[in-house]
Every structure is written in structure tokens, then in C-alpha cells.
């Protein structure tokens, strides 16, 4: 995906246009500014609900309803009043950011304009202004991408990355390195793909800091990152994604988790978005389990034992 989401933590009201061959994407902000990388968390959460329904043979819809508290927990956000205020502002930016593109999704090339979400509704709200239930309608463009499996699963640790630039480089690595052991890109092209508006010198400094931190803490999920002397950025797989060299590809679309299985899984991994954990499990397994529910619940227990409650 082109850098649709702003990396800025301040309101970004710039108009952006990206062109490649005969394709283009133009992004226009609302008065509230462009949707940010952190606002994208809401889309990721909604997409995880749609993918879970598809994986289990349930009818899917562009309209998703969820509890505000569950989304805040799943995306590593504060669950106090400030967290709910931030969530409402993010919904406004997602609905207000307008995109015009002729990028193909679902095998169709159509030039059209749309928002990232068509609309949202706060169904129930407490007297303190905390959104208990929220309903979102995904845009046709986003929903088509999900319907045709044009989305990649992201590591749950993605939500622990606080710097927008770190999130963006992880997304790029996830798309291009994916299951390969190594992938490299020039620093200048990476800056373009990130949509960073800083100078090349400043972007090099930012990347150098990220590389230094990752060397010490290994905090970028799934991939290590290195910056070479000739300004090449090298991503290497940490071996945490299924089907890296040596693992067999396995179609998990036939796997069905029962309602009781989901309930047990929620108890096994309290506080986590169980559908995001399910995506990780489906990417991890390499053969059909004898007992699907037991295998999934067991994975959730190990997940929670390793990570604890979402921070």
C-alpha cells in the first residue's frame, strides 16, 4: 500500500499524490487532518473481525460492531477517558480522509473516490462519554481488498511500536520480505515508500537510531533491520512467520473453530483480540490439527504465558 497514512503526530493537512506507471493514488485530508499510522489500528482491528468470520465460514459484512474497550485493549491503547477521546478523533480522521485512485483491487480497475471508512456510529455511550458499542462501515475499496485476500496479517507486537516510522517500515518489510529470509532496499526508496517528508539526512538519522535500538532490543517484529555503509536497508527474517524456508505451505481455510472454542480461547488469553491471535495461529500451523478447538486454545495459553496481558 502507498503511504496513505500520515507519520506525523500533529494534524497533517497536506494533499498527497503518488504515481507509478499508469496507477495513481491521491489522498486529501479533512479539516481534522489525514488519518495517521496509529488510526490504522482501527482498520486492522475491523479487518481481523472480517477475516475471522471468513475463516470460519460465516457471512461477512462491511458493517462491524464492537466494544470500544475491547478495541483499546487489543491495540495497546489507554482505556481511560483520554483513550476514548483519541478513538473518537481517529474515527473522524478515518471517515474524513478521502482517496482517489485507479489501483486495482479484486481484479478491477476503477477510478473512484472514497473514505477509508464510509461511516461510523456510536451505538451506546456512557454518561462519562465512553463508547460502549461502536459500529463502522468499511469502504468498498477496503472491503474488496479483504474479500480477495489482498491483506497481510501483522504481528500482534506491531501495536507495541509507538513510533509511526517504525510501524511503517515493519509494514513495508512484511509486504516485501514476507516469508523470504532476506530483502534489501535503498534508503532513498524506503524514504519514498514511507512517505516521510523529512530531509534525506534526517531520514538517515532516524533509520540509524531504529537500527541501533533493534540491535539491542530486537523490538521490530518478525524482521531484524540493518543499514549498510552504502545506504542499503537490509531486513532479515527472525523465523517467526510460518512457511519461511523449510516450512510447508498449508491452506487453513478448511479449519473451523467452534463457538465454545472461541470462548475457551478468550479465557486462555484474557485481554487479547482473539481474532488477531487466531490469524497468528493460522499462519503458524503446518498441518490440520486432530482437535481444532484444543489446538487453538493450547496456542492461546502459550501466547498468554509468553506475553501476559496487553500493555
Give a verbal description of the structure.
The chain has helices at 40-55, 68-74, 81-96, 140-147, 164-176, 187-194, 200-217, 259-268, 274-284, 292-307; strands spanning 16-20, 23-28, 63-67, 98-101, 112-115, 117-125, 131-138, 182-186, 223-227, 232-237. The protein is α+β, with helices and mostly antiparallel strands and 311 residues long. The chain folds into 3 domains: 16-147, no CATH class; 164-237, Arc Repressor Mutant, subunit A (Orthogonal Bundle); 259-307, no CATH class. The strands form 3 sheets. It has a 4-stranded antiparallel sheet with strand order 1-2-4-5. The model is unreliable at 243-249 (pLDDT under 50).
Fold blueprint:
Elements: E1 16-20, E2 23-28, H1 40-55, E3 63-67, H2 68-74, H3 81-96, E4 98-101, E5 112-115, E6 117-125, E7 131-138, H4 140-147, H5 164-176, E8 182-186, H6 187-194, H7 200-217, E9 223-227, E10 232-237, H8 259-268, H9 274-284, H10 292-307
Antiparallel strand pairs: 1-2, 2-4, 3-7, 4-5, 6-7, 8-10, 9-10
Helix pairs in contact: 1-9, 8-10, 9-10
Short description, anyone?
40% of the residues lie in helices and 18% in strands.
Core attributes:
alpha+beta, four-stranded antiparallel sheet, three-stranded antiparallel sheet, globular
> Helix tally?
10
Which whole number gives the mean pLDDT? 84
What fraction of the residues are assigned to beta strands by DSSP? Answer: 15-25%
Provide the succession of SSEs: EEHEHHEEEEHHEHHEEHHH
Query: pLDDT below 50 for ≥5 consecutive residues: which ranges?
Result: 243-249
- What Rg is obtained from the alpha carbons, in whole angstroms? 20 Å
The order of strands across the largest sheet is 1-2-4-5
Q: What is the strand tally?
A: 10
Kindly give the count of domains: 3
Could you describe the largest sheet, including whether it forms a barrel?
4 strands, antiparallel
Q: State the end-to-end CA separation.
A: 28 Å
| Helix and strand composition category | alpha+beta
Amino acid at each position: 500500500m502507498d503511504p496513505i497514512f500520515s507519520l506525523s503526530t500533529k494534524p497533517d493537512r497536506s494533499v498527497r499524490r503518488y504515481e507509478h506507471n499508469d496507477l495513481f493514488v491521491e489522498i486529501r485530508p479533512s479539516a481534522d487532518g489525514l488519518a495517521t499510522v496509529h488510526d490504522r489500528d482501527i482498520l486492522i482491528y475491523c479487518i481481523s473481525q472480517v477475516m475471522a468470520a471468513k475463516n470460519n465460514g460465516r457471512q461477512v459484512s462491511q458493517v462491524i460492531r464492537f466494544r470500544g474497550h475491547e478495541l483499546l485493549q487489543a491495540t495497546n491503547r489507554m482505556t481511560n477517558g483520554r483513550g476514548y477521546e483519541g478513538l473518537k478523533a481517529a474515527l473522524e480522521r478515518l471517515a474524513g480522509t478521502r482517496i482517489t485512485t485507479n489501483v486495482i483491487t479484486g481484479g478491477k480497475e476503477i477510478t473512484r473516490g472514497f473514505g477509508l471508512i464510509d461511516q461510523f456510529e456510536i451505538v451506546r455511550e456512557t454518561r462519562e462519554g465512553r463508547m460502549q458499542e461502536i459500529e463502522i462501515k468499511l469502504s468498498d475499496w477496503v472491503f474488496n481488498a479483504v474479500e480477495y485476500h489482498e491483506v497481510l496479517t501483522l504481528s500482534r507486537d506491531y501495536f507495541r511500536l509507538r513510533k509511526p516510522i517504525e510501524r511503517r517500515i515493519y509494514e513495508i518489510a512484511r509486504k516485501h520480505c514476507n516469508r523470504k529470509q532476506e530483502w534489501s532496499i535503498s534508503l532513498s526508496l524506503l524514504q519514498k515508500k514511507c512517505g516521510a517528508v523529512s530531509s534525506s539526512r534526517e531520514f538517515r538519522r532516524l533509520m540509524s537510531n531504529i537500527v541501533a535500538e533493534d540491535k539491542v532490543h530486537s523490538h521490530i517484529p518478525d524482521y531484524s533491520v540493518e543499514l549498510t555503509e552504502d545506504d542499503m536497508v537490509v531486513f532479515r527474517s527472525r523465523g517467526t512467520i510460518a512457511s519461511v524456508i523449510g516450512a510447508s505451505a498449508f491452506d487453513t481455510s478448511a479449519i473451523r473453530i467452534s463457538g465454545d472454542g472461541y470462548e475457551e480461547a478468550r479465557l486462555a488469553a484474557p485481554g487479547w483480540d482473539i481474532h488477531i491471535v487466531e490469524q497468528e495461529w493460522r499462519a503458524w500451523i503446518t498441518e490440520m490439527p486432530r482437535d481444532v478447538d484444543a489446538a487453538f486454545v493450547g496456542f492461546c495459553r502459550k501466547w498468554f504465558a509468553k506475553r501476559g496481558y496487553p500493555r
